[in-house]
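Sequence, please.
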């Protein structure tokens, strides 16, 4: 396998993964759909930063140590699960508080909008970095696309960059589509429904991560 073939093959694999609806998709759609464009792009950049970190660590061989250590993997898995459940429950709970005091659920669920980009970045990065499944994916898949004789670290970063570019392109589509629904989501009831659905999905991902052994 030469470098060009490796890049195209890897792009196909991660492209299909990127298009598969999941936690990242839910976060981006929810944030952009509520009209928080800067925060939505913060989430996108945070997610892709996490992807870069996982790819770099895998290229250095560090992630393999994590997946080989049951204790380290379990700690990271439980930390990620706790964060996702907290995030989802907090999002759902904010809709009930907002309904009680007459404020919009989205405004209480996403505080500190003055620092929207940074807040979104933290949320996206934590969601990605605390998910050991991403590390396991990279350990299992990335080395298969590094041709013999090529610099392992540099080729690993190049492949990771392909994943990031595809992720950014798909995120642009998601943000644009979500912003098209912004008018309908300005109604408080619609915001509450969106937050309850998204929060439930995020919490479910956390429970699933906690219940998973691998």
């Amino acid at each position: 396998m030469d470098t060009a073939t490796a890049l195209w093959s890897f792009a196909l694999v991660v492209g299909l993964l990127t298009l598969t609806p999941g936690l990242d998709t839910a976060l981006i759609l929810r944030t952009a759909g509520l009209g928080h464009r800067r925060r939505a792009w913060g989430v996108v950049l945070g997610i892709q930063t996490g992807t870069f970190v996982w790819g770099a660590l895998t290229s250095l061989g560090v992630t393999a140590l994590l997946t080989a250590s049951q204790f380290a993997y379990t700690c990271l898995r439980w930390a990620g699960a706790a964060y996702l459940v907290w995030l989802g429950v907090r999002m759902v709970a904010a809709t009930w508080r907002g309904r009680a005091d007459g404020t919009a659920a989205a405004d209480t669920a996403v505080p500190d909008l003055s620092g929207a980009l940074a807040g979104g970045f933290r949320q996206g990065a934590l969601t990605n970095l605390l998910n050991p499944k991403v590390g396991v994916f990279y350990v299992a898949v990335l080395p298969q696309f590094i041709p013999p004789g090529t610099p392992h670290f540099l080729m690993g970063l190049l492949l990771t960059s392909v994943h990031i570019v595809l992720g950014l392109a798909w995120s642009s589509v998601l943000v644009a589509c979500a912003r098209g629904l912004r008018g309908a989501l300005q109604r408080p009831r619609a915001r509450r429904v969106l937050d309850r659905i998204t929060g439930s999905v995020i919490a479910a991902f956390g429970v699933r991560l906690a219940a998973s052994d691998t």
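The chain has one domain: 3-211.
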